[in-house]
Amino acid sequence: MSLRARKYASRAAFYVLVAIIIAYTVFPFYWAIVSSLKGGTELFRTDFLPPDPKWGNYTSIFLEQPFERNILNSVIVAVSVVIISLGLSVTASYALGRVHFRGRSLLLLTVLGVSMFPQVAVLSGMFELVRWLGLYNRLPGLMLSYMIFTLPFTIWVLTTFMREMPRELEEAAMMDGATPLQIIYKVFLPLLTPALATTGLLAFIAAWNEFLFALTFMLSNEMRTVPVAIALISGASQYELPWGNIMAASVIVTLPLIALVLIFQRRIVSGLTAGAVKG
Q1: CATH number of the domain encompassing residue 225
Q2: Under DSSP, is residue 240 helix (H, G, I), strand (E, B) or coil?
């Protein structure tokens, strides 16, 4: 085989591999959309396009339960968790990444170790804490509990980025009389924008999709978040589930995540590749 033939063969193999990966990742969402437009026995047929789209599945989930309130609850909780996590993580990462003090490495490992515990292991303790604070069946209770897995992650990632910041920037700001908070928010924060976008989006996805704490700490339908609301969609009997409605709700709650990824795509790539190449 000539060199040109091998070049074309390798390129064709690469494109085939890319097509397989795209089909593997996109097909589940495509099938969810197709299933959301079906009803009855149509759900058990392998039609790649629904012969008679049931658009009523999308309207019925809003008519049969307070699904718009559930979406609003998820938005409030996820956005609040991201803002609080990033606000605390920026200052914590500056202390852990730029300030030398005894026990810094141990403290950073402790922060990382907190995120390694499974949610069910801390569920009973968090339940007692939430109830003692009077936050049961209230959104602040979810915000507090979600910080357990979002805050360690954001602190660890931002600390890595903070360590890569040039020391000269900090020294120049200190010579101009800047305080540590001014250095953080006026010097380092603009440079951390790609990292903030990456960690913020991942924290948002984690808070948006969280199920166990939301199921445990929320009691009424009006206070539930979308993962719990979808899981509790019921049919006429316990043996008959409205899969069309469930898939329609799943598509609706997935669209905001896709939109956020598309909006912050460039910043996410910049955040993931920052520090990979040093000049």
Answers
A1: 1.10.3720.10
A2: strand
Helices H, strands E: what count in the chain? 14, 0
Q: Which two tokens stand for residue 38?
A: 């079906």
For 75-86, write each residue's pLDDT tens digit: 999 999 999 999
- The rounded distance, in Å, linking the Cα atoms of 244 and 255 is 17
Radius of gyration of the chain (CA): 24
Instruction: For residue 145, count other CB atoms closer than 10 A to its CB.
Output: 25
- Within-domain flag for 228: yes
SS3 label, residue 49: coil
Q: How many domains does the chain divide into?
A: 1
Q: Tell which residue, 89, 266, 215, has the closest CA to residue 162.
A: 89
Least confident of 72-76, 105-109, 122-126, 271-275: 271-275
User: In whole angstroms, how far apart are CA 83 and each of 80, 87, 189, 200, 260?
Assistant: 5, 6, 14, 8, 15
The pLDDT confidence band at residue 278, using thresholds 50, 70 and 90, is very low
Question: What is the identity of the amino acid at 87?
Answer: G
Domain membership of residue 155 (yes or no) is yes
Q: Please give the Cα distance from 19 to 26 (Å, whole number).
A: 10
Structure tokens at 151: 């805050």
The b-or-e profile of 179-197 (16+ CB within 10 A means b, else e) is: eeeebbeebbeebbebbbb
Burial of 22 (0-12, 13-18, 19+ CB in 10 A): exposed
For residue 170, the enclosing domain spans: 66-232
**Tens of pLDDT, residues 114-158:** 778 888 888 888 999 999 999 999 999 999 999 988 998 898 888
Would you state the structure tokens that stand for residue 115, as one six-digit string? 């995120």
pTM exceeds cut of 0.85 = no
In a domain, 274, yes or no: no
CA distance 208 to 143: 11
